[in-house]
Amino acid sequence: MSDRLSDNFRERVLSLIRQIPYGKVATYGHIAAMAGAPRHARFIGRILQTAGDDSLPWHRVINHRGQISLPRCGPYELQKHLLLAEGVEFDLNDRIDLRRFGWHPQY
Questions:
Q1: Which contiguous run of DSSP H or E holds residue 27?
Q2: Within 13 Å of residue 86, how many CA atoms lie on the same side as its CB?
Q3: What's the CA gap between 13 and 41, in Å, rounded?
Q4: pTM for this predicted structure
Q5: Helix (H), strand (E) counts: the chain
Q6: Residue 40, pLDDT above cutoff 80
Q7: Where are the beta strands (DSSP E) in the chain?
């Protein structure tokens, strides 16, 4: 991605993440697709790592299997705690039902 494209992509991604409603989740791939780059899901994680925005609901972004992608012991537990506090439920395999808790806006 060129610098200009990546700046525009970054801003679209951050804007979309800010729109994820309380109690809902979106996948990295879904955010990338809505931002106009469906094959760039990996960039979403990088953008989140460097966002530096404490008000960004980063914890609402998960992987395509409905799971948290962060390492256990620390970040994983924090993300899970934040999602549970919003009423998001996990099954016995620590998966979230994307049909029930997934954010699917009409774009």
A1: strand 26-27
A2: 18
A3: 10
A4: 0.90
A5: 5, 2
A6: yes
A7: 26-27, 61-62
Q: Inform me whether the pLDDT recorded for 6 exceeds 90.
A: no
> How many residues in the chain?
107
The token pair that represents 62 in the structure block: 């998960």
What's the distance, CA 1 to chain centroid?
Answer: 21
- Tokens 């506090």 sit on residue: 85
Residue 62 in 3-state DSSP? strand
71 pLDDT higher than 60: yes
Amino acid, res. 48 = L
- Assigned fold of 3-100: Arc Repressor Mutant, subunit A (1.10.10)
How much is the average pLDDT of 76-101? 97
